[in-house]
Specification:
Elements lengths: L7 E4 L9 H10 L3 E6 L3 H4 L6 H17 L2 E4 L2 H14 L6 E4 L27 E6 L8 H13 L8 E6 L7 H9 L7 E4 L4 H10 L2 E4 L8 H8 L4 E3 L5 H5 L4 E2 L5 H12 L2 H14 L5 H14 L4
Parallel strand pairs: 1-2, 2-3, 3-4, 5-6, 5-8, 6-7, 8-9, 9-10
Helix pairs in contact: 1-3, 5-10
């Protein structure tokens, strides 16, 4: 492909280790083309203690070069767009990229109620109530607060570990070795915290449909896709208000402090005991929440790509 002013290059991946932004910047000077990026979050700048240490300096430099180079940054939430605007203002960039935002899709690529065989739940979840948290296990996602809250609930007799379970879906990330060991070895849990990795879209769909409710204790999100997915399924959700989570959940979500272990223990326990409350909340969510599909999300994204001016 020959570069020209009519060419737009879109960078939508986590490619900060695989490209030289300074070379792209110089190339744009001699061979004009448009460079548009998806902006997921600015966590390395805002919360560097929640980033793999070896990447902090790399990502700090990356964002500085990105805002100098890109013609447009399309953020995955208004919150992330505002974080970008704040960074531009703080660093007094003279020719900043144009920032905008679009909404991510939240539909899973499965046919609910179709002719294909329904995915079975793992045996340990058959015939029990369970709360669901979908996320990579890493410090920012705050699984530890749920772990401690779950212990409080068991110790006080607020939940029955034989009939009520806590399900973590997601692969293991960085700096969680001690937590994973405790989850697997702590006899007080009585096997009531279930960790699932490598889950198919079909099984994830089944987990969302069968969960009593969902959880999102994260300390910061550039968007919070699992929260949007849970609302799409009409599931009540306990969440923090960090980052874009309030933007996604609005008044349909119950928000808790990420460090208030007792509040999480009390709320999770109460929800397990209140099927009528959960049913009423689910009815409200289904009536009020307007989910975005991935096709509509892509259509809006490319509309903005085509409309964005060059520097």
């Amino acid at each position: 492909m020959r570069l020209s002013p009519s060419v737009t290059i879109v960078s939508a991946g986590l490619d900060w280790e695989h490209k030289d932004l300074r070379s792209i910047y110089q190339l744009k000077k001699t061979t004009p083309f448009r460079y548009v990026v998806v902006l997921y979050d600015l966590i390395p700048l805002l919360l560097p203690h929640f980033v793999v240490p070896a990447y902090v300096d790399l990502l700090t430099a990356y964002f500085g070069e990105l805002f100098w180079t890109a013609d447009a940054c399309i953020a995955i939430s208004k919150t992330t767009e505002q974080d970008g605007q704040a960074y531009i203002a703080l660093n007094q960039l003279q020719t900043p990229p144009r920032l905008s935002n679009f909404v991510l899709g939240s539909d899973l690529p499965v046919v609910v109620g179709g002719d294909s065989a329904e995915e079975s739940l793992p045996p340990q979840l058959n015939g029990v109530q369970f709360a669901l948290y979908v996320s990579t296990v890493e410090p920012r996602k705050n699984h530890r607060t749920l772990y401690h809250a779950w212990q409080v609930a068991i110790r006080n007799g607020w939940i029955d570990p034989k009939t009520q379970k806590l399900v973590f879906v997601g692969h293991s990330g960085w700096n969680v070795g001690d937590l994973l060991y405790e989850l697997d070895a702590n006899p007080a849990l009585e096997g009531s915290i279930i960790r699932l990795q490598g889950v198919s879209d079909e099984l994830l769909d089944r987990l969302y449909r069968d969960a009593a409710f969902c959880l999102m204790p994260s300390r910061y999100e550039g968007y919070g896709l699992p929260l949007a997915e849970s609302l799409r399924y009409g599931k009540p959700c306990l969440s923090t208000s960090a980052g874009a989570l309030c933007e996604v959940g609005g008044s349909l979500v119950t928000y808790l402090d990420p460090d208030d272990v007792f509040a999480w223990a009390e709320s999770v326990s109460q929800w397990f005991k209140s099927p009528g409350l959960l049913s009423d909340m689910s009815t409200k969510i289904r009536a009020s929440y307007n989910p975005t599909g991935w096709s509509a999300s892509a259509e809006e994204f490319y509309r903005q790509v085509l409309e964005e001016p060059r520097k």
